[in-house]
Design goal:
Length: 323
């Protein structure tokens, strides 16, 4: 009997039903179409996954498959950010990379009666991808605000740090040839040093600095959501940070510090202290590495994801801050 041929890594996404829209941007639509699915508060209509830098399709698939089972009626937009966007490409060049994703989101909103969006970001690569996607929505879709109802932060966000950034770039060098790795390592040091210098001189902002700031900006889309019929943000966006002390890429203190800033910002705009604790939650794992918190089966991980989404119903009962 002939064995079934293995699915090659580049085709894993296609095998899961994804359409490759452009370099780094892929879209899955449920069989019946997102507009035909009866949605409830327990189910997002769109899941945006912003994967970590250098993420391989076979690793991303470990997160996509559970989502297909948990929320079968949801569309999934996958954004695979490129490290060049984080190091040397200016924002004006990046908009063409993220525009396809922005257009896909706009199309989803157009055909979905009550859109509900879950954002799942991994590491600083995914965090930067989310921030740039938001910017692309405004720049290329007539000022569209990226719709975000809940966020899961996996192993992020982190402050600009020299050594972990170099380590991530060097680990991604595909060749084991010492000469090639030597050239790649030199290029990594040169790139990180030059971008750091540009940041110090005020020429351009480091990607890690920008994402760390924008993800807690009350005027952006990640901390507060603007409700239909209201002119300014009026409802907090529930978020959960998943992290581990064993992560050697993103420092625990950076993640905890970002959560603290988020809570402080919510208090400033008028969210009650007790409510803030429900909106912003921290979930620490033990012994798991960077973007690898599902290694032990993932039940706890996916319970956290579902709990994060369920809190969208809780915050909907909060008093509006728009008045």
């Amino acid at each position: 009997m002939e064995s079934t041929p293995a699915v090659s890594p580049p085709n894993i996404l296609k095998a899961l039903g994804f359409q490759i829209l452009s370099q780094g941007i892929s879209l899955y639509k449920p069989t019946n179409g997102a507009d035909a699915i009866k949605t409830t508060k327990q189910s997002p209509t769109l899941i945006i996954i912003c994967s970590w830098a250098f993420a391989q399709p076979k690793h991303i698939a470990k997160y996509i498959r559970p989502y297909l089972e948990l929320y079968p009626g949801a569309a999934i937009l996958l954004v695979q950010n490129e490290v060049s966007n984080m190091i040397w490409r200016p924002d004006s060049w990046q908009m063409s990379f993220f525009e396809t994703g922005a257009v896909a989101i706009q199309a989803h909103l157009a055909v979905t009666k009550h859109p509900q969006v879950l954002l799942h970001v991994f590491s600083n690569g995914g965090s930067h991808g989310a921030v740039q996607l938001s910017q692309a929505c405004r720049a290329t879709c007539g000022g569209l605000r990226l719709p975000v109802d809940a966020i899961v932060f996996d192993s992020c966000p982190g402050q600009p740090r020299f050594a972990p950034t170099i380590k991530a770039l060097v680990q991604a060098i595909p060749s084991r040839n010492l000469f090639i790795r030597g050239i790649g390592t030199t290029a990594a040091y040169a790139s990180v040093t030059s971008t750091g210098l540009c940041h110090i001189l005020g020429i351009s902002e480091l990607a890690a600095s920008k994402l760390y700031r924008k993800l807690n900006d009350p005027l952006d889309v990640f901390l507060l959501k603007t409700l239909p019929g209201e002119k300014r943000p009026s409802r907090p966006v529930p978020r959960t940070y998943i992290f581990s002390e064993s992560d050697d890429m993103i420092m625990v203190e950076d993640i905890i510090g970002h959560a603290r800033i988020a809570r402080d910002q919510l208090l400033v705009v008028g969210v009650e202290n007790a409510d803030v604790e429900d909106v912003v939650q921290l979930e620490q794992f033990s012994g798991t590495g960077h973007v690898n918190h599902i290694k032990d089966g993932g039940q706890k991980y996916w319970d956290i994801v579902q709990d994060t989404w369920s809190r969208t119903e809780t915050v909907s009962s909060f008093p509006s801050m728009a008045g």
